[in-house]
Amino acid sequence: MAPVLDRIRVGSAPDSWGVWFADDPRQVPWRRFLDEVAEAGYSWIELGPYGYLPTDPARLTDEVARRGLAVSAGTVFTALHHGPAVWESTWAQVARVAALTRATGARHLVVIPSFWRDDKTAEILEPPELTAEQWVHLTKGMERLGHEVKETYGLDIVVHPHADTHLDTEAHVERFLDSTDSELVNLCLDTGHYAYCGGDSVKLIETYGERIGYLHLKQVDPAVLADVVADGLPFGPAVRRGVMCEPPSGVPELEPVLVAAQRLGVDLFAIVEQDMYPCPPDRPLPIAVRTRRFLRSCGA
């Protein structure tokens, strides 16, 4: 019998429909995404890249609500390890996303660090390891961001470790958590990205449970990942090779992750993200339906 996972709120995101950009002719149109995510049986969505869904709050709220959906979070990319010089430009883009996120009734803002290599061209943009000074900029910058977003918009930031960023491996994630204030900054644990970078999601939940504020559910194909590592591929080409796969065919196993999250005793969003950019427009819906069925079999 499946465990009861009554503290887990399952949703999906534009990412699972092959959406990475605000506007790209290869992507599914936004109305189709909303129609299909509801058809697949999800109740919650993320906003995806700013500008993909309508940015007028009244229109967005109406389009989401009339399909029986609700918004769990917005998403921003930041480069706070560059220090105070980037604060103003960072805040300008955060503010517009946070304002729209608040207008939908959501309470979370997912914050992703910037890439150290280009996810299309593989160009090395900066060293993959931060200096001690850059670590301070990153951690203090995220604390400032957490404080300002909470004060101004009433949202909690959840920082998302991500492949090809400076916040990726177990060592980097633990250093980040140990260096930040839990009152200001918590984590969006993406099970796929963490596995991609060698981390153990269940161990992280059991060790740093009080810092887990949000989940992204994703799996990695171990065989493809081995080739990606051997070939030194950046994340974008790795996705095109199929490194992120449909559950339950990859790692980590999602039921133990969800059970560990349930044991924390708090309500948590668990948003499905299967990176598939670019993909044929008819591919996402059947996968989404099967994934939702699988998660129900796990108790979620």
Q: Could you characterize what this model shows?
A:
This protein has 300 residues and is of the alpha/beta class. The protein has helices at residues 30-39, 57-65, 87-103, 132-153, 170-178, 191-196, 201-207, 222-231, 235-240, 254-262, 284-297, and strands at 8-12, 44-46, 70-78, 108-113, 156-159, 186-190, 212-217, 219-220, 244-245, 268-272. The chain has a single domain, classed as Alpha-Beta Barrel (TIM Barrel), CATH 3.20.20. Helix 3 links the parallel strand 3 and strand 4. Helix 3 runs parallel beside helix 4. The strands form 2 sheets. It has an 8-stranded parallel barrel, surrounded by 5 helices. Strands 8-9 form a two-stranded antiparallel ribbon. It starts with 7 loop residues before the first strand and ends with a helix. The model has no long low-confidence stretch (mean pLDDT 97).
